[in-house]
TrEMBL record:
Family membership: Belongs to the glycosyltransferase 2 family.
Residue ranges occupied by any Glycosyltransferase 2-like domain in the UniProt entry: 14-178
Pfam families listed in its UniProt record: Glycos_transf_2 (PF00535)
SUPFAM superfamilies hit by this protein: Nucleotide-diphospho-sugar transferases
One MF annotation (Gene Ontology) recorded for this entry: dolichyl-phosphate beta-D-mannosyltransferase activity
Keywords: Glycosyltransferase, Transferase
Enzyme class at the top of the EC tree: transferase
Name this protein carries in UniProt: dolichyl-phosphate beta-D-mannosyltransferase
GO cellular component, one term: membrane
Catalytic reaction equation(s): a di-trans,poly-cis-dolichyl phosphate + GDP-alpha-D-mannose = a di-trans,poly-cis-dolichyl beta-D-mannosyl phosphate + GDP
């Protein structure tokens, strides 16, 4: 949606939410600074009782590329990212990135996302499930759940993306400025899907690049099982709404065409009209069956991969 342009590293902000990440914070901060020295880091700490916030303040006091937001309560990852987005937009950063504090998103691969932004993309997702992407140290059950969940999301929404739940992202500011943050879903971690789906529907340039996702070595995951149910229920609702809108648009587009065909045909008798209508419905049913078979085959091919 935006034209390609050079992205300066010093106008890029990497947002890293934290809660009890005192072991990981020194590692992730060091890696980001070494991999991309010019980018700025914003640590958004949700009042970590283990001292993560205080350690972040120490880093910020010594390095003008590191900044900190302290939030009074831990109200979820979405709230932390919204606080970070607003902070960065107010300070004229041109590219805002999401990155986990636990090292699962390799800072050494950030350049892959930023290169696509420089090439004109509005949103770049670091994907585990495009060719070249992979997961490391994940239990097989968790990977299967993630893969199947993303296949379901892809089919339900028709967004054409392989990893809509991924949290390693780079946004051009114009995209974020178009989003009403108050409307984003906070069911589980589904806001990541919500952001990507809104970007696709609004015509922004959304791309995926392969990354290596590595399971955290220190600390505990903030993910719990309830997110699966909450997320898939929400996605199913969006999918039905989206398909309903598409069907409505299709009917609106087709109706005048059908009317003209009937008018041009010169058919005046009721039986003839019914015959043509039946033929038209039959043709449409055939096309819908082709689409259904394509969708099933697409799901099967994704599962095989």
């Amino acid at each position: 949606m935006t034209s390609p342009q050079t992205v300066k590293s010093d106008t890029t902000l990497v947002i890293i939410p934290t809660f009890n990440e005192i072991e990981n914070l020194p590692l992730i901060t060091k890696r980001v600074r070494e991999a991309t020295p010019e980018v700025h880091i914003l640590i958004v700490d949700d009042s970590s009782p283990d001292g993560t916030g205080e350690l972040a303040d120490e880093y910020a006091g010594k390095d003008d590329h590191v900044h900190v937001i302290h939030r009074e309560s831990k109200d979820g990852l979405l709230g932390a990212y919204i606080a970070g987005f607003k902070w960065g937009l107010e300070r004229d950063y041109q590219v805002l990135c999401e990155m986990d504090a636990d090292g699962s998103h390799a800072p050494e691969q950030l350049h892959l996302l930023l290169e696509q932004i420089a090439d004109g993309a509005d949103l770049v997702i670091g994907s585990r499930y495009v060719p070249g992407g992979e997961t490391v140290n994940w239990p097989a059950s968790r990977e299967y759940l993630s893969r199947l969940g993303n296949i379901y999301i892809s089919v339900a929404l028709g967004a054409g993306l392989s990893d809509m739940t991924a949290g390693y992202r780079a946004f051009r500011r114009e995209l974020l400025e178009s989003i009403n943050f108050d409307e984003l879903s906070d069911a589980g971690y589904i806001f990541q899907v919500d952001l990507a789906f809104r970007a696709v529907k609004d015509g922004f340039d959304v791309r995926e690049v392969p990354i290596t996702f590595t399971e955290r070595e220190y600390g505990e995951s903030k993910l719990d099982g309830s997110f699966v149910k909450d997320s898939l229920v929400e996605v199913t609702k969006w999918g039905l709404e989206h398909r309903s809108e598409q069907a409505k648009d299709a009917v609106e587009d087709i109706t005048p065409v059908v009317k003209r065909l009937v008018d041009d045909s010169g058919v005046t008798s009721i039986p003839a009209k019914l015959g043509e209508a039946a033929s038209f419905v039959g043709d449409m049913a055939g096309e819908m069956w082709k689409i259904a078979k394509f969708t099933v085959n697409d799901v099967r091919s994704n599962i095989k991969r």
